[in-house]
Queue: 4 jobs
Job 1
Amino acid sequence: MDTWIVVAGALSAVACAIPGNFLVLRRMSMMGDAISHAVLPGLAIAFLMTDSRSGLTMFIGAAVVGLLTAVFTQWVNHFGKVEESASMGVVFTTLFAIGLVIIVRAADHVDLDPGCVLYGAIELVPLDTLVLMGLEMPRVVLTLGIVLIINLLFTVLFFKELRITSFDPNLANSMGVNANLVHYAVMSIVAVTTVACFESVGSILVIAMLIVPPAIAYLLTDRLYVMVPLSAAIAVLCAVLGHVLAIIGPSLVGFGDRSTNTAGMMAVVAGLLFVVTLIFAPRHGVLSRWLHQRSLGLSMLREDVLGLIYRLEEHDPQQTVVAPRVLRQALGIGPLTRGIAMRGLIRAGLMRRRNRLYEITETGRHKARNLVRSHRLWESYLHRHADVLAGHVHPTAELLEHVTTPRMQEELAAGVESSGSDPHGKSIPPPV
């Protein structure tokens, strides 16, 4: 039974994660939530029209209203000039309320519980079985498998169209790709997938798997053809770990032999994986970005130290060494930051230590001269071509000097070096 529960959870998670990638890229992450609330009138109307609660009847009714949710949302957004998330809120709350009214007024005597749509019952999946080619399996597994195959085929066959319309719909239209048609196709897939997963896992897990695995993959890669399979793998991991923790998790925190809701725990695992990824992702994680910014700041500080020493020597050629106190006063840095920066310069062979003073090497002097040259070229360019006052060019040039490439420096020199000095009358060093 545990195997079939995990299989059903994994199939629903992967089926949701694949179209979820395009919801994340299109900034429509809450569309799954909107559809999950808005299908209620579809369930009620399907029962009223057929007087049946069969799975197929309910599925068709919910899928039709789910698709209408996407259409109405787009219509309100486009014609009503309402922001997309606001239009989702208007549509799904209205449809959800209509569904509640229909159930109360026309089908109150029927056991048509909207809670089953929200929470699901994945633990009961192995009890409703059928025989296919001699293999007894849960009915839900067959349904979810078919939905997954449809989603895979749709993504593979229309990957080019999905990619271009997700990133730039206007470019897609100019290339002959109907962006609106692709949009409604994606919304149809999302609606069908969402409704198909309701019965077994409920809308909580559906919403989580539509968004969280793609969001995790989005933090780990910048390639869409990697993002899609990676999100599917993360979805399977969430399903497996979620069921295991649902069984053993309560005992680990002192609740004895109790277990908890599997669908809910799968969503919890997805959330925990997202938090870990958000912190430790190699390129886009909080920690990696902080380290990158810290490294960039130290690199700029080391260059500022070289530029300061060059300017001091330029003012007094006899001053070939500098005391730590001078660096602290001129650059406004503490002893720890100064020590890290100076050790980096010494390791790079740009500075050397003499007693308790610092001395620039010949290699460091060349680098410092190039940095000061870029700074003064930028000051001249901003003053001459951007009409920036001479007293206001220094802060901007101080930033731009750190990102100036040799080619940029050549182009700057071609336009401003004829004067031979910056707006403050200081000479521009010759090229190294």
Job 2
Amino acid sequence: MMDFANKNVLVVGVGISGNAAAETVKKLGASRVVLSDSKQEKDLKYDLSEVRSAGVELLFGAQENSLLDGVDLMILSPAVPVRVPLVQEAYKRSIPVISEIQLAYWLAKSPILAVTGTNGKTTTVTLLGDLMKTRYENAGVGGNIGVPLCREALRAGEESCLVAEISSYQMEATTEFKPHIAVVLNVTPDHVVRHGNLDVYQQMKEKMFAQQTAEDYLVLNYDNDKTRDMAKRARAQVCFFSRLAKLEEGAFVQDDWLTIVWRGQTCRLCRTDELKIKGGHNIENALAAAAAAFLGGARIPKIIDVLKEFPGVEHRIEPVDTVDGVPYYNDSKATNTDSAVKALESFDGHIVLIAGGDDKLTDLTDFMTLVRERADELILVGDAAARFKENALKLGYPAEHIHEAGYSMEEAVKKAHAISGPPQVVLLSPACASFDMYDGYEERGRDFKRLVKELKA
């Protein structure tokens, strides 16, 4: 780990991670810390008063190469790609470039349990955090979940553990990161615009376990071809989980029971219908979290208790309310088609689906095929509406059941209320990012919930 005393540190990218990294290295003794963002301060929706009071300098606008003069270390926010000119110039000058995740790894005094994957990360990490808190009261939970991991590393301290949600963006500038337990849930097409292609995206996922040793554990989804194949490149002890297959060893479903078999020990946890979280994908998330917690030292009776009580996370097939006999569900976290498919599979048809937003331009065939099978009505919003409509029609979805609501969630909710009735459900599962209409999926989901509550009122 770097000794920050008398060091000159440049943090690039205002945001949850960047702000926390800047404050942390300043508190650790860095003589000068500059936080730079290419946007102007008035265009950033962050309160920077704490960053300023910590003694961090803030620079906004054009990022000239002179920013690098005298810099000993660059820390990147996850939203900043390594391809930007300032970062490339840092590499040319042999200035070390790291992520906030790597900073957290340097600071951590307890083992890290890290979870990545295209879908299911937040649910799995939240559940795993609850499971590990039964063993370590002070366990930290952070990363891509919206809590800076560097702060949690300092807070958790020694004789505890850190549970981390890790995205491909966070791994891009990470060169040193070795979790004691790594979990890879799945790999499906996503973030191709950022990484260029699916192979690079997968490489970012695999970086998470690349430095593990035989003392460590790697928990992999046996049902996903790409994650199952990762076992060939693992140096850690591999523990598979599977919803579909009975495994000789690992975590799996047997006769509707979540079961762990490991090193000759067999543990039945709970029945699938005892989980409060909905859908087959959540059985996978529960298996992954239970396996990681078991390997991390959580006791089986405590694992069982938490599995039965875990309510799920906000914005992931979250029940909002029932209006005129029709239940409304907020699945705003479905920012890609694979995640939306899992939501559609969680219901037995009769869905009034609200979809669309900031289009990731991924293939829509599987998604729209399932929409045709499960959704009675399709309401489209945002930038993606035209492409989604075109693909739905191409796959035989009836034109009279497609409705457009422009860039208005209010219009979409009103339309859903007008055309729905029992036994239907209204599901917001956009299959898109939110940035054409909102600052993030959280804001989108909360707006949807507000509008549903107003309908109810």
Job 3
Amino acid sequence: MKIGFDLMGSDNSPHIEIEALKFIKDEIKSEIIVVGKGDYEKEVKNLGFEYRIAEEVIGMHEIPTVAVRQKRNSSLGVLFSMLQKKEIDGLVSAGNTGAIMGFSFFDLGTIEENARPGLAITLPTQSGYSIMIDVGANIKPKPPDLLYYGIMGSVLAKIILKKENPRVGLLNVGSESVKGDEIRQKAYQLLKEGIPDFVGNIEGNNLMKGFVDVIVTDGFTGNVLLKYAEGIVDALWNMLKETVDAAMRRKFGQFLVKPAMKDLKAKFSYEEYGGGILLGVNGVVIICHGHSSPLALKNALLMARCCVECNIIEEIKKVMKK
């Protein structure tokens, strides 16, 4: 098994990526092929990793369609060419999300001819974690797309969350089947007929309560919700620190409370899941934040390995054929 790793992806590349490699070198060093500019070949090889040289880099602000056509020799272009040729089994990048999805469509193709891929992440809840799909790949899904998201999310929940019969819910403005716009109403019926463990609509105030294992939504809503959740945790963390510091003047009280606060913040941190997996394409593609930390990238690499080991693409294909 080989996982391709984009050295030039993040906002602070390649330094953050190199730190991630240092974190993970004793775990899966032999399984990673790093792709980046020639300037960093010696440093990465000295860490013990295989290296492939890319002549170009796709910046965060480049137009994805243009970059995909014109920068085939970029780190992303080289990685997707390797994945297409099966020289690697999956890839991880914190680069331009639009370009990653563009390469995925053109180089890998989709599992189902008329199915749009969805980006899935793990979302912390009171009772553990749930899968949320989509968080940015498709902002205008059709009802069948939302059905595919439920199916693919269920497969991922079985693999990542170890749920035998994942409960699937459709994010909506009310619990009744007639709530929401026409797309949600039609999607509700498709999910009800197509997924045995579909439990109906779920409202935003219940997302963190762990009532469902898979949350189905469109890419626009999912992306806004994800970023809001990350932002609100940071804001609450700062407010709680100020409150604790003001209310508990004794060091002993702070000693008891602050570790619990840190544990809560860690659970909600994007670093815990590392990145999202683009489900629906013919390959394991993990997309990370541009501002990812070394720990987040390390966890993304481990997630990619898990998905490859569990053969998630073939598992999704099996379910789709039923």
Job 4
Amino acid sequence: MRIAYIVNQFPPNITAGLGRYAELITPYLARGHRLAVFTLNDGRQTVEERLPGITVHRPLGRLLGAIGRRRRLNRTKGVEFLLLALTVVASNWRYFLRLRRSARPDLVAVHDSTNFLAALLCHYALRLPVVLHVHTTEYGVAEQRSIPDPVGLFAALERWLARISRRVVVATPEVRDQLVAAGWDRTPIDVVPLGGTFEHLVADPGFDRAGLDEAAAGLRVRLGIAAGDPVLLFVGRIERQKGVYQLLEALPEIAAGLPGVRLVLVGEGDVAGVERIAAASGLSVLAPGRFVGGRELLEFYAMADACVFPSLFEPFGLVATEAMALGRPVVLGDGFSRIFLGDPDRPACRFVRAGDPADIARGVLEVMTDARLAGELAERGRRLVSEGLSWERAARETVACYEAALGRLTRTSS
């Protein structure tokens, strides 16, 4: 199968979970299939690149490429989000031009509604079958949105994309149900849970856990955290949808029940706002203020006594797989899928009401003050990720969705 794969992030341009997803699943998709990836260029990547089984196209515009070379745009800031949106739209046009003059793919996989222009052009102009992957619903469907849409234009655009797509692929049953409730009922919606971010690392017999723990101890020292201080870790964009402000409201109660606790926020976004809140209330909060990946991210997880991700909504949440894979007890907001709960009688995580700071505090204190509970959650979470969330399975199920889309097209055409 020849697959055109349109996604906003692809290595080395990874700034969020979407980039990690593309990095981890595409090598499996390329096994036995020809994959052409069309992705953004922040001004520092090569325009064309060949990888095993994958050809990567990164068209570069002069104006926005020049902006990207000077600084990486932060999508959580209004003006920079607008510039990123313009970059996506302009790049979508270039993807279309490149596809129009290249060998015709069997199918176009479009990731998220931000790539709406490419999806519409491939469907209407090139008459190609489109499969839409929905990684986030925060623009037009979710109650809590990251952009204003007072008259529902983006929501209408998303429904349009669903109608012209042969299949829609989501990562959880909750997102599927959310889309159906929003009127996405004319196209089959397939649920394909993702894999774990650190799947290969922790499965490697040569994985040096002792060395990682030693590096984590060094990170603790560099951050100025005393050896005996409990560390509560948050990883993700620092913005409203991730429940950060409710977490900050919960912190005084957490600190009262767990003296010396240090909250570490890893991610980019409203770092200045967090620092103002922390300074005004005397909270002990550390926020590096940047996207962290690779070995350094592993060290942050290994340093943590527990992880909290109180998202108001989360289409999947790779951060949960990351923390669980490394044996960290996890507290999740109810915006996460119940996939991460595992067996309700022997849960793999502690769920809390994301909009309720008092409930966040209760959940965190239960986990961080009960060593037995923390250990049970850590072990169950580790097993849930290692046994149930593999990228090989995710790729196999994704290919099955693509084949179903092509089969449906054949039946429609006959």
